[in-house]
């Protein structure tokens, strides 16, 4: 049953990502991207990572996709697709090469799985890790990062 | 307790406080001259705290997120020094921005905080977040001029930086997935018990090198450099070419040495990659620099070439069986001397461009007559970049190349020396243009006292290091002490 | 002798360079002549110290002074110390360099008077001299290389001194690039040496060679590499093409380059590493053959040149060939003795040509003639210099050339034949120059529109005393310099066996031997032929030129070597190939911000489109390809 769901999600994810590149209308491409994000959230659920699945939906589907769509709407002409697409075939070739390289790597690697079962409850341990005795420093650095991004964005985007 | 460990990040915290203070003060004061003074004070306070931590050798804090070791502290001081010099050099240049001078200094300081955390981080997550903190600040700073070239440079930098960041993240994810840890020492523990690495783990290593290859401008990840250097405000170009590059080298040295430094089969693996990249980087940088007409682009390619010399040191470090400390101190020494030299050169360029408003090398004609001091200083720095006596650049090159020869990388050193000869052509072309030829205008080119001071500091240091390197060699040898090895 | 003395010999001219460059030129622009006095003072003092060193060396055991090294830096396992090597070779060289340089600096005061670059000129001259002295004094091949490059830089700056003249700028570039080709050999030799011995120290290298630790193929390649560098600087075939063009610089510069600094550096380098050459028969043969061939090859081109400085330039190349031949078949003493005597008379001849130019405004001998009366001092000194160069007894050139001929005769008949034919050619072209320049009727000097010196319209005149005086001093040396070795004193100093004991007997004894007599007769024949062709016109040069048209053209066009280099190597391979490709790569692929592709759109919205002009995508593709390529390589070689 889980296998079936996995393959279903995988097909959706692949189809959605191919559509993101192939569709000429950038607005529709953004919608396909949302579909991709949703299927990734599904993968997280399959992996017992409920918190990540929710975060994936909240941030990627809820915030980032909306941001992209708003940006598209604010930009005139952008809906007509890329004005210049000279590197389509190059990019395709590179993508293929990347696929081969990664496939080789993955097929020749033996993965060792942890013996322990996944946690039932992930939210509390994650919270403790992030704000308790674990990754509090990176979280704080991320806060400074946001500050810097805000300051930079204001300074760059407003008039001279 | 975490609270007790706060003292280990006092330099960063104090710098952050001053950055916030500047934003607030900027709202109320009309005389903006106070802002650079506050930045310099902030940097000095941070430097004071950093020095206070010296000698606390080799401990980690915040659950192995960052290390307090002399390696990291040395680079923090180097970053703070370049911050101070860049702020002093910006003092006249910022008048181009009118508004947002406060934000300029604040964001500059935030990026310095990112770099400082980066050089002491010992966990892949901390490394990544600090890298992003410094990068995002720099994306904004590059587009600060808001003219076409600057905006384009900023956007290019942002997009390419995002790609590089994605590559790095993928590499880190693979490493984490296969070793089960993000801590550098824990990854080292994993390798200690294994006799070979799976192809995917090697891919992770390659992607990490590629991601930082972007930061340090190694071929083939260097294409952004000339465009961004040309478009960015010149003080930011200077900052990018020294502080950002030094931190990039520091963190890649730390990752390779701590996480991937043992056993022997592993470090031989990356040593060869980096040796080949080093040869390519030097050659591409130097040969392309030959045809440049814009001084900022010229320095872009020059900084690529210099990164190539530094990578010779990295490769030698990988060749050494016992993590040879001399080679590491060579890299540190090179970065130290390169930082002072390149910053000095940029300060002179900023002073000149403030007056003539051009970055074309042809417009430097007769600068020796218009400002003998600026032209003389720039000549000294170009001599140092070429690696000729009596300057720091020569010692730095000898230091690195000697280490590489000891580790059997003679072929690479031969390439490096030939490259140094090639580099003389374009460095001395600038010298020739400045001292020969009649100036287009008889106007004297002068500068403000903060710029003079910064320039004088760089000049004196470059010569002192070149003539009597003993004390500085000792300092860099003390700075090799790294947490975890 | 205090340790500081040899150091000061280098430091004084270098300090003069810094003083002029950093203080006098920027801040005391009103008194340009100060720069000249500073240089002359520094070089003069250095010259006095050089003589002190020479006498100290003469009195020292084994003619070698021990001077302690100065510890400079300990870098890792590398202990860098700098020091000077003071042996007889060094002592002779510092004396030659400082003495000739001093004469040139004094002379330049007159020649460069009123030039807007007067201070710059003296700054470069000081630097040039300092680098040459550094090269001579250094006891470490790495430092020698640094000064070697410094000499190259100095020559570049001075040959291109009048950089607004395109010919001067090109000549400077040519000199720099051609000598660079030889430097690659030198550099490779240094690296090979370091890789196989782990040391840069000259004395240690001598010991290693003496004990046989450094031998065989490695040694041969090292020696050949060093010789490649020397051939570049000393303008040996096939790297000789830069020297004739190098006369685009001010004449005193040519004089210094041709006599004591730049070209002597190559000969000195071979002499300095002579123990290495001695242990490799192949290397010695290479040096001798290239030397002998260059001697006759350059002399043949000197036969047909019409520019007085070009005649002298080819003569220098030819004489340098002699020196190399002397080193290759003989000993350090023989080669360096010729360098020693040649320095004086060649410097004299160049200063003479400068004086002629000062008087007439041209270097073209076809426009001169009859200057004997107008410029008696210049005439007298020039003739003595020419006699000395031609090898007429008892002038300096005779003694040094004789030794080379003797050594060549003992070594190989072919080399000897080349050398003796060169003697004939040398005598001929020098007196062709003398007769064309100083005898016959005055033909008007510079053509007005080319003449930059307006004051010369009133006819040729003698140069001022400040120019004549150094020429007279040099004339004395051109006459007497050979006598130092009549009894073998000079050779003994440089480590060879002494030959004679009685001065007078040795002085006259040369006529008892057939070889010196033969060379003397050959030289006189050469002078006589020039006399017959250019003074008495018994034989018409034009007729001979027409009869031997193909040969004449071949010589006049310098065997088409310039064309070969410029068209084939520089234009086709370098310029059209590599540089264009690089420039194209940079301008059309990498460089996006200045080519205007995106300039059609404006404003903030335009920026978005601007990044889509292709560069950014290309950069991303490059990053991806790079990462994948590395990964694939790792898979393959893992």
Segments of chain B where pLDDT lies below 50 for 5+ residues? none
Radius of gyration of chain B: 21 Å
**Which secondary-structure class do the elements of chain B indicate?**
mainly alpha
The interface involving the most residues is between: B-C, 73 and 65 residues
The fraction of residues assigned to DSSP E strands of chain B is under 5%
Please report the number of helical segments of chain B: 20
Roughly what percent helix of chain B? over 70%
Radius of gyration of chain A: 20 Å
Mean pLDDT of chain B: 90
Q: How would the global form of chain A be characterised?
A: globular
Instruction: Calculate the mean pLDDT score of chain A and round it.
Output: 86
SSE pattern of chain B, N- to C-terminal: HHHEEHHHHHHHHHHHHHHHHH
Tally the beta strands of chain B: 2
Task: Provide structural commentary.
The complex is a heterotrimer of chains A (160), B (485) and C (638). By secondary structure, chain A is mainly α. Chain A has 2 domains: 1-81, Four Helix Bundle (Hemerythrin (Met), subunit A) (Up-down Bundle), CATH 1.20.120; 121-160. In chain A, 74% of the residues lie in helices and 0% in strands. Chain B has a domain at 291-485. In chain B, strand 1 (59-61) and strand 2 form a beta hairpin. In chain B, helix 2 packs antiparallel against helix 5 (101-120), helix 4 packs parallel to helix 14 (325-356) and helix 12 runs antiparallel to helix 13 (295-319). Residues 448-457 and 589-612 of chain C have low confidence and may be disordered. In chain C, a hairpin with a 2-residue loop joins strand 2 and strand 3 (78-82). In chain C, the strands form 2 sheets. Chain C has a two-stranded antiparallel ribbon. In chain C, strands 2-3 form a two-stranded antiparallel sheet. Chain C has helices spanning 4-27, 33-59, 88-111, 118-137, 141-159, 166-197, 202-211, 216-233, 242-245, 251-259, 262-272, 274-278, 281-302, 308-329, 332-360, 371-374, 376-390, 396-411, 413-438, 465-480, 489-493, 503-509, 514-535, 541-547, 549-556, 561-590, 603-610, 615-637, and strands at 64-65, 70-75, 78-82, 86-87. With 638 residues, chain C is mainly α. Chain C is built from 28 helices and 4 strands. The A-B interface holds A 101-102, 104-106, 108-111, 114, 133-138, 141-142, 144-145, 147-149, 151-156, 158-160 and B 2, 9, 16, 23, 62-63, 65-66, 97-100, 103-104, 106-107, 110-111, 113-114, 117, 123, 125-126, 129-130, 132-133, 136-137, 139-141, 143-144, 146, 154, 178, 180, 198-203.
